[in-house]
């Protein structure tokens, strides 16, 4: 299963990983192009809750997000194509990515970032109650979805390991 690729004791098919990243890079670039297209259509689209300054800021938001996704997607695809075409660069990157220490650091980084997000959301919920009921409900929904995702992955990992 694809979850097993996350763990240190499993081998990594570096070529397959690079090809997957190329496809994802192209997908990000396409999503970015869609966001750029939305930025041009946004002033003419109906809005559910029109707030002051919405029309000015939403175009810039979609344009900036879209350009960022296009840039990141293209760079990811180019970088991984270079890995596949240059054997020396491929070997160096494969060693870097398959090193047990680097993989363990990556896993711990994700874990600590997850804990930080949970604590940050909880603090936001405590403060958000004094700001707006909408903010409070939104943060509660994000926290609930995040906790549900954690539970799903815990169950999946317990079955695969």
What is the SS-derived class?
Answer: mainly alpha
Average pLDDT, rounded to a whole number, is: 89
The domain tally reads 2
Low-confidence stretches: none
Strand content: under 5%
Share of helical residues: over 70%
Global geometry: flat
- Measured distance between first and last alpha carbons: 10 Å
Task: Tell me the total number of β-strands.
Answer: 0
What is the N-to-C succession of helices and strands?
Answer: HHHHH
Radius of gyration: 21 Å
Please give the count of helices: 5
Summarize the biggest pleated sheet.
none
Verbal overview:
The model has no long low-confidence stretch (mean pLDDT 89). It is built from five helices and no strands. The longest helix has 32 residues, at 54-85. It has two domains: 1-98, no CATH class; 100-161. The chain has helices spanning 14-41, 54-85, 87-98, 100-131, 133-160. It is mostly helical and 161 residues long. It is 82% helix and 0% strand.
Task: Write a compact overview of the structure shown.
The protein has helices at 14-41, 54-85, 87-98, 100-131, 133-160.
